[in-house]
Amino acid sequence: MSLEVTLEFSGGAELLFDKIKSRVVALPVPRPDGAKWTIRAFLVWIRDNLLKERPELFLQGDTIRPGILVLVNDQDWELIGELDYELEAKDTILFISTLHGG
Predict the structure, then answer these.
(1) Residue 52: beta bridge partners?
(2) CA distances from 71 to 4, 60, 102 (A)
(3) Domain tally for the chain?
(4) Reduced 3-state DSSP string for the chain
(5) For the chain, which ranges sit under pLDDT 70?
(6) Predicted pLDDT of residue 5
(7) Of 39, 57, 64, 88, which shows the fewest CB atoms inside 10 Å?
(8) CATH number (domain holding residue 15)
(9) Contact assessment for residue 9 and residue 95, using Cβ atoms and an 8 Å cutoff
(10) pTM assigned to the model
(11) Range of the domain at 59
């Protein structure tokens, strides 16, 4: 059994993920530790399975680096619990980088 969610990257964040802007991922259910999938756990999975380069541009500690907007189903993640939000089937998680060089 798996939990399918859609990941989207924009604003340059996709460059850290082989320039892939959108993908559907299937997460094992239950998680190996038996817990539910939260965004906190999902970020670890993303780091270990999808992030191809320069993790410091995407993650800071156990969270998203400042300057990256996170939307879950078109809602700011700050409104739904941020790292503690429990993923649901068919969720769409969008990471938009607002950091730009000059």
Answers:
(1) none
(2) 17, 18, 26
(3) 1
(4) CEEEEEEEEECCHHHHHCCCCEEEEEEECCCCCCCCCEHHHHHHHHHHHCCCCCHHHCEECCEECCCEEEEECCEEHHHCCHHHCECCCCCEEEEEECCCCC
(5) 100-102
(6) 97
(7) 88
(8) 3.10.20.30
(9) yes
(10) 0.90
(11) 2-97
